[in-house]
Structures are given as structure tokens and as C-alpha cells.
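Following up on my earlier thread - several people asked me to post the actual chain instead of describing it. Fair enough. Here it is, all 149 residues.
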Amino acid sequence: MMPTKAQLMQQLQAMLSVQRQTALDAAQVAHNDATNEQSVAETQYDTIGLEAAYLAHGQSQRVADIDAILQQLASLLLRDFSSDDNIALTAIITLEGGMTCWLLPACGGYKLSNDNIIVITPQSPLGKKLDGAMVNDTLDDGRKIISIS
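Reply from S.P.:
Thanks for posting it. Predicted structure:
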């Protein structure tokens, strides 16, 4: 049985939260390395402290990016679609051949529901083909849209 969109969203948010915590931990370790007294440069070629500072900044930026994605996903209205609707954000689409994808503004490539549903974005090649299409339309690659929910 297919999970609800709310359940899928919880799964996606949980995955992002784990990635956020990993990046936060890495930023803390890198920050500690950058500010450790043993990281003070002894020569002009000694860049361990500088490299750790760059790494800390990059990981902190990753945390901020994930926070922005989580906020964006939390504000989405998880709309139910009928077979008469055009495909738009939050639609779950099943294509001929069994591929099921979820059109979201971020997180393209994430796999949910035991890898049975793949997140795609409107900017992706498949997302561009699907955005605005309808059930029974055939994509230019020959696949037919079987269902939308």
C-alpha cells in the first residue's frame, strides 16, 4: 500500500534532519580543528588551520541550505490530484514501466518508500516533461503517464 503524502514528507524531512545533524557535527569538528592551538601555522606552507576553517564554513553553509529546504517543504500544501488535473508540485506520478515519482521543489534524486518513489524537481529533465502534463499523455521518450495522485 502506498504511503500518504504526509507520511512521505515525514520520511523526507527525517532524512534531511539526519543530513543536517551530520553536517552540524562535521562543522563543529572542523571549527574545533581550526581553532585548536596545534593548528597555528608554523610556516607559510602550513595551512591545516585555514583548511579546517574553510571546511567549517562549508559545513555550516550546508546546515543553512538544509534548513532552507526544510522550511520550504514545511510550507508546501500537499495537494491531492485527480486524473483530470495537470501535473504540478506535490503530484505523485506513475509512468508506464512502473516508475513512480514525486514532484517537489527540492530534494531531487531522494528515494522514498523503500526506493519505490523518487523525488524529482521541475528543473530536472523528467520534471520539465511532466510539469503540466496529464494522465494518458505520452512523453517524448515514449513513456505514458498512467496515474497521478
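The longest helix spans residues 5-35. That should answer part of your original question.
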